[in-house]
């Protein structure tokens, strides 16, 4: 009673503990003020083990959730959910609640027995809960919008129970829930008093229609098996215990909860699990695959499954990994081993959960994660995915200012909830750097950018604040990362009785960023305002010492169509992808870039970018062109060496120089052009070879590499492609299963349901079609190395396994297209549309004439496509009615099984659920061989025949066949589409793109266009104040070559350089004309001089032939050789013949002396007096003149040639000048005697001098003079050249010596700075230990040292 005498209202019931259900109106939030739950209330309701179930209220019958329809005679009831419940990949909007302790979604197979047979028991004496025994079923829907107390409390309770109970569910927000309770359930077949042997357990399902979690609450277990399973009739013990787990119900997947299911330890379910700190609570995630969310202490083995989240991290470390699997004690010492990284210590959070902080892990791909408890072995193991550094991004930049050389500010944002939910928490923003100065790369702390900043999710970095910073020994860092972590560690509460806490520090990282905005002031102080040029030159000098790598890279395709079609070599470049990232910062004006999917043997990577015209962009044309890379983004084993670290080595060796040489300098700077033309030049597409393509589609139509088309409806597993060599090994196999029945019954045709491939020794990758009812989220299953992998997150879009790269296009969200790239250049593409698969194989030219299988031998010859495993050949298909012969004689021969065959290999498919190749191979299956609709569809169904021709507008016989067999319009449509796509790919790959290759853009100039196809006309222009030299236009000719320049190669010269060059050319022309002319004049003068000398020599001592004859005859006739003065003065008549031919006559040869002292015949033996022999001396002239004959005084008389010779007394007559032998027959007459001619003194002197000149000067002195002249000319040329070379060598050696001294000085300073940095780091670490006691001193220490600790990556 109230004070006013009225009736007091009924007290509000607690929906979490009451047995009376709330009203329906209250459940939808229509009753009044929205309900708000407090933390204390949430803690209270979460401390209750069982979720609420009601036996009263809630409906008109006042029976609450009790299911009175469920009895032994009718053990199940159907329930419509009106929402989607994901389970094992399927989605259901209904369920069936069974008395036998489970929920089902379909009838089990006929041979499947119930895991447990139950009946409703009785209340036992002393039961606190007196609600009637039976089944209770309750649904709570639309929890996200509910505002009533029941809805809010169920939502919050479920949300936090699952988030804290199942790792990896931190963002789960339930949308719908199902609570099913089996209270006091006994076993079937027992005695009457066995009804008091009862079990009470509960299942709670929570879903957001994408993820589904199951909670099993085991309150009491008194019996374990029913009588039909061998249990006794009184207590239900013995026999086979009940089945615990999950079953997809269609023979595809199942999960048995070991060691409890069907084992005697099933009783331990009430004392294990430890989910949310409760014994008897077990949590699972069941939407796609079953993942255990609670620990399991009752199993042992060498390889126990480890559950952890997140499944991937960041290679820089800092990711907090939650671990469950073993059951932990509060004092356990946890050791975590991430692949090859050092062991890190873990921390126990509760019995069901521990955490490990991932260390820096410079590897990529799936790595081992193993844990051990105490001194035990590493039994619990899992596969942890470690993507490259560029795959995960937790810190975002609002603009591209961080790329600039000197930005005014840089704005960053991050998800603050990734660090903590506490908005008042403070964070620290720090800067880290990376370098490869030794074989072991280092990742080093640089400085703090900000401290004690509130975690607001955004911050603005002002680079000018770091103007006075000095980071000695760190100025060689070119790029790094921004790290954000909490200033104070987070305390994680445990669920132990002592409420212990664990402190962790979450960390988030940015993507790699250049560090010019931070180090610009220090670099300017060291190298001047033009510091990018200095750093660029330093990089160029270093890169020249590294080995060349471009020669092993594959050639780029000429067009974007070819690049997209070559799926065996190239995949999209995430930095410039037309589908996901069109920004293309490093390749401006490009619409799409591709790169090689796997590193070469040297670890390099090819990049090919394409412009709006679809043609290849070259670095010779612009700085945004394609750029080969020394290091692949995936790295190379071993990953802990320089140039081999995933992502980081590529940034260090290939991305940083783009900033130093081009982005921070002018495009036409010397360093940028050196980078573009020498160190990272694009490779043209002249030698590109497009792949061969073959495919399979529809109800198994095949197009071979050589364009043979046929239909093969085998049933089983068959070889599609197999190479015949070990160097380029490739195996691709397909599984063909029978088509689903149509409206008229069985369809005797097959379709592709699974494809598997392996290249060389790579990981085996299988792509499998999912069942039709399980395609709501993923269309295809990808199984790599025996486990399913998914591509539903950005960091998982591209996954690399040993020898193979697997990815889905960035625009594909439902996993309906999977591309497999093998290291040998082969590619496999699998697509699915409406449940109909197609597969296409791409092969490089190295596989020509090396393949066999259903796709034929790629040899450009169709006749050998039907090659059998034993090497024999079968004639190819001739018409569409020849398919039965193809089936029997060729296709069926390529069936494979699990037994190795030397010609076909063995089946590569992943086996599960106890299946083998025998479950699929059916050699007795006979498909429909007739191809036309009239032969397939009965005549009485003429509408369907007409419909076939109407749907298949392309008139493909494959379309006719597919629709006539299945009556499925979707299949007919995709058959046409798939075949057309195959031939489009073939046309693209076979279209020859004629390329004229590279045509360099002149420095300080530009080109009118960057095309390189025939007919292209390129016009050159130069920048202002530059002059164009050479051809102003070039044309790409039809034969794929640029026309030959008429005026020389094009250059752009400065005005001064142009003038100097013109002057040099002018002087060159002048000298080119003058030097030959001078040489010619000298030569002519020499010849004239030589002719003149020879003429004088011959005229001195020659005799007239006629005079000699006459003299000889005269001497022969006369006994005495006495002459009168008159006779002596006679001279012979001159001979024209002698005079004219004297120059051309052969010179007389003398023995260098004239023997005048020989005794003449018939003359007294008288000694001649000594006379001067040199006619050039004055002593030669006689003292007295000889007497002249009167006959000589005539002025017209001629003188004898020898009249100038003087003779002394006693000779009054002229002596003989010719010795006459005694042989009279040879004595000449008087007329033949050589009479000396009289000459003037001047002529005499000249005539006598010519003797000596001819004999000595022309022979000896002339040779010496000629040699001297030649030597003089040679020395005049060589000496300046030698001096110039010596000077150049001296300058080079001096410069080299100076560089060596600078390097030694730099190395010495480097070591000194390193020692000081290590000492500073040691001081900082020492001071950090006093952080909690003296925080103010610690901050001062960090600010003053400004140095970091260096971590060497091993």
UniProtKB/TrEMBL annotation:
Protein's name in the database: Protein mesh
Positions with biased composition (Basic and acidic residues): 1127-1139, 1150-1173, 1304-1317
Cell compartment(s), UniProt: Membrane
Segments of this protein annotated with the region Disordered: 1-34, 1114-1208, 1304-1354
Biased composition (Polar residues): 16-34, 1342-1354
Protein species of origin: Aromia moschata
TM region(s), chain numbering: 1064-1086, 1269-1293
CDD domains on file: CCP
CC terms in the record's Gene Ontology section: membrane
Residue stretches making up the AMOP domain: 528-679
Keyword Oxidoreductase in record: no
One of the Pfam families matching this protein, by short name: VWD
VWFD domain location: 692-903
Record keywords, A-Z: Disulfide bond, Membrane, Sushi, Transmembrane, Transmembrane helix
Gene Ontology process terms (BP): cell-matrix adhesion
Biased composition (Low complexity): 1194-1204
Sushi domain ranges (all copies): 994-1054
Boundaries of every NIDO domain copy: 126-289
InterPro entries: AMOP_dom (IPR005533), Epithelial_Barrier/Signaling (IPR051495), Ig-like_fold (IPR013783), Ig_E-set (IPR014756), NIDO_dom (IPR003886), Sushi/SCR/CCP_sf (IPR035976), Sushi_SCR_CCP_dom (IPR000436), VWF_type-D (IPR001846)
């Amino acid at each position: 009673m109230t004070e006013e005498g009225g009736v007091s209202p009924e007290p509000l019931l607690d929906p979490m503990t009451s047995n009376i259900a709330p009203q329906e109106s209250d459940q939808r939030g229509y009753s009044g003020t929205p309900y708000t739950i407090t933390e204390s209330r949430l803690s209270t309701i979460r401390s209750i083990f069982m979720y609420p179930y009601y036996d009263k209220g809630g409906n008109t019958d006042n029976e609450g959730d009790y299911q009175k329809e469920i009895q032994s005679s009718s053990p199940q009831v159907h329930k419509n959910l009106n929402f989607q419940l994901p389970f094992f990949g399927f989605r259901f909007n209904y369920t069936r609640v069974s008395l036998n302790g489970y929920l089902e979604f379909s009838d089990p197979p006929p041979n499947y027995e119930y895991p447990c047979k139950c009946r409703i028991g009785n209340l036992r004496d002393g039961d606190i809960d007196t609600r009637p025994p039976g089944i209770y079923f309750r649904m709570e829907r639309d929890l996200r919008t509910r505002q009533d107390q029941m809805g809010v409390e169920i939502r919050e309770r479920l949300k936090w129970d699952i988030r804290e109970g199942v790792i990896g569910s931190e963002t789960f927000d339930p949308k719908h829930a199902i609570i099913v309770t089996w209270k006091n359930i006994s076993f079937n077949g027992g005695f009457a008093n066995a009804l008091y042997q009862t079990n009470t357990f509960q299942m709670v399902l929570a879903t957001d229609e994408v993820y589904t979690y199951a909670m099993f609450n085991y309150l009491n277990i008194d019996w374990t098996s029913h009588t039909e399973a061998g249990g006794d009739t009184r207590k239900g013990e013995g026999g086979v215990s009940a089945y615990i787990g999950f079953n997809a119900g269609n023979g595809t997947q199942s999960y048995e909860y070991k060691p409890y299911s069907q084992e005697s330890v099933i009783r331990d379910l009430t004392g294990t699990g430890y989910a949310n700190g409760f014994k008897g609570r077990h949590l699972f995630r069941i939407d796609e695959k079953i993942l255990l969310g609670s620990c399991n202490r009752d199993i042992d083995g060498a390889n126990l499954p480890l559950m952890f989240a997140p499944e991937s991290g960041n290679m820089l470390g800092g990711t907090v990994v939650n671990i469950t699997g073993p059951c932990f004690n509060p004092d356990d010492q946890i050791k975590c081993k991430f692949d090859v990284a050092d062991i890190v210590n873990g921390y126990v959070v509760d019995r069901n959960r521990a955490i490990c902080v991932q260390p820096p892990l410079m590897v990529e791909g799936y790595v081992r994660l193993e844990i051990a408890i105490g001194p035990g072995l590493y039994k619990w193991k899992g596969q942890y995915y470690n993507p490259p550094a560029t795959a995960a991004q937790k810190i975002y930049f609002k603009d591209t200012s961080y790329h600039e050389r000197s930005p005014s500010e840089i704005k960053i944002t991050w998800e603050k909830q990734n660090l903590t939910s506490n908005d008042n928490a403070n964070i620290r923003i720090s800067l880290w750097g990376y370098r490869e100065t030794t074989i072991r790369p280092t990742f080093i702390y640089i400085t703090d950018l900000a401290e004690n900043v509130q975690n607001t999710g955004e911050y603005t970095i002002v680079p000018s604040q770091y103007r006075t910073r000095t980071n000695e020994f760190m100025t060689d860092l070119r790029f790094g990362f921004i790290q954000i972590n909490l200033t104070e560690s987070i305390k994680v509460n445990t669920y132990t009785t002592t409420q212990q806490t664990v402190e962790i520090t979450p960390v988030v990282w940015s993507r790699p960023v250049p560090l010019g905005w931070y180090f610009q002031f220090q670099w300017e102080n060291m190298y001047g305002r033009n510091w990018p040029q200095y750093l660029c030159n330093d990089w160029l000098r270093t890169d020249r010492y590294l080995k060349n790598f471009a020669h092993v890279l594959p050639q780029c395709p000429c067009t974007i169509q070819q690049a997209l079609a070559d799926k065996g070599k190239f995949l999209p470049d995430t930095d410039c992808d037309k589908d996901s990232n069109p920004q293309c910062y490093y390749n401006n004006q490009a619409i799409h870039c591709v790169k090689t999917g796997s590193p070469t043997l040297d670890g390099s990577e090819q990049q090919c970018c394409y412009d709006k015209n679809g043609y290849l962009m070259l670095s010779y044309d612009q700085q945004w062109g394609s750029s080969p890379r020394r290091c692949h983004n995936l790295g190379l084993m071993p990953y802990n060496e320089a140039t081999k670290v995933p992502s980081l080595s590529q940034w260090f060796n290939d991305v940083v120089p783009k900033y130093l040489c081009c982005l921070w300098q002018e495009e036409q700077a010397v360093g940028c052009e050196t980078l573009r033309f020498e160190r990272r030049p694009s490779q043209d597409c002249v030698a590109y070879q497009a792949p061969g393509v073959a495919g399979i589609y529809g109800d198994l139509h095949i197009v071979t590499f050589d364009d043979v088309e046929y239909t093969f409806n085998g049933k089983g597993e068959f070889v599609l492609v197999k190479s015949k060599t070990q160097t380029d090994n490739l195996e691709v196999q397909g599984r063909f299963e029978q088509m689903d029945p149509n409206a008229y019954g069985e369809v005797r045709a097959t379709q592709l349901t699974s494809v598997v491939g392996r290249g060389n020794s790579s990981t085996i990758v299988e792509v499998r079609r999912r069942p039709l009812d399980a395609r709501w989220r993923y269309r295809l299953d990808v199984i790599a190395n025996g486990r399913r992998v998914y591509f539903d997150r950005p960091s998982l879009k591209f996954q690399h396994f040993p020898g193979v790269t697997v990815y889905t296009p960035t625009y594909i969200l439902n996993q309906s297209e999977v591309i497999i790239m093998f290291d040998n250049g082969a590619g496999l593409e699998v697509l699915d549309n409406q449940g109909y698969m197609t597969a296409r194989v791409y092969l490089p030219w190295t596989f020509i004439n090396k393949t066999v299988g259903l796709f034929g031998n790629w040899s450009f010859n169709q006749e050998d496509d039907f090659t059998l495993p034993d090497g024999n050949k079968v004639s190819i298909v001739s018409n569409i009615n020849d398919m039965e012969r193809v089936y029997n004689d060729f296709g069926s021969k390529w069936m494979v099984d699990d037994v190795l065959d030397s010609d076909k290999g063995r089946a590569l498919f992943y086996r599960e659920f106890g299946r083998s190749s025998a479950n699929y191979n059916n050699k007795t299956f006979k498909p429909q061989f007739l191809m036309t609709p009239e032969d397939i569809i009965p005549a009485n169904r003429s509408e369907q025949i007409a419909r076939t021709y109407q749907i298949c507008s392309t008139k493909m016989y494959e379309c006719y066949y597919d629709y006539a067999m299945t009556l499925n319009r979707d299949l007919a449509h995709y058959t046409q589409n798939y075949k057309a796509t195959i031939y489009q790919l073939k046309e693209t790959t076979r279209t020859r793109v004629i390329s004229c290759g590279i045509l360099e853009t002149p420095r300080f100039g530009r080109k009118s266009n960057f095309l390189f196809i025939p007919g292209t006309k390129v016009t050159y222009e130069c920048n202002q104040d530059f002059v164009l030299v050479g051809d102003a236009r070039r044309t790409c000719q039809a034969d794929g070559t640029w026309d030959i320049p008429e005026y020389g190669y094009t250059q752009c010269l400065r005005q001064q350089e142009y003038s100097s060059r013109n002057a040099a050319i002018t002087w060159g022309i002048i000298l080119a004309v003058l030097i030959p002319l001078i040489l010619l004049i000298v030569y002519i003068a020499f010849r004239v001089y030589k002719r003149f000398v020879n003429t004088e020599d011959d005229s001195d001592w020659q005799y007239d032939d006629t005079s000699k004859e006459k003299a000889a005859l005269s001497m022969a006739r006369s006994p005495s050789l006495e002459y009168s003065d008159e006779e002596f003065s006679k001279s012979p008549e001159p001979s024209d013949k002698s005079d004219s031919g004297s120059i051309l006559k052969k010179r007389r040869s003398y023995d260098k002396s004239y023997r005048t002292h020989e005794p003449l015949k018939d003359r007294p033996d008288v000694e001649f007096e000594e006379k001067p022999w040199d006619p050039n001396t004055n002593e030669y002239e006689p003292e007295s003149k000889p007497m002249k004959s009167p006959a000589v005084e005539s002025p017209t008389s001629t003188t004898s040639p020898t009249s100038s010779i003087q003779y002394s007394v006693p000779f009054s007559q002229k002596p003989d000048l010719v010795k006459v032998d005694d042989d009279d027959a040879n004595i000449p007459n008087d007329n033949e005697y050589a009479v000396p001619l009289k000459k003037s003194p001047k002529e005499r002197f000249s005539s006598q001098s010519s003797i000596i000149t001819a004999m000595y000067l022309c022979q000896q002195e002339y040779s010496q003079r000629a040699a001297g002249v030649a030597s003089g000319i040679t020395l005049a040329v060589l000496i300046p050249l030698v001096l110039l070379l010596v000077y150049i060598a001296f300058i080079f050696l001096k410069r080299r010596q100076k560089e060596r001294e600078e390097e030694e000085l730099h190395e010495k300073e480097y070591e000194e700075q390193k020692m000081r940095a290590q000492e500073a780091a040691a001081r900082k670490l020492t001071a950090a230990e006093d952080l909690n006691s003296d925080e103010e001193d610690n901050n001062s220490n960090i600010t003053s040292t400004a140095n970091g600790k260096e971590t060497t990556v091993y």
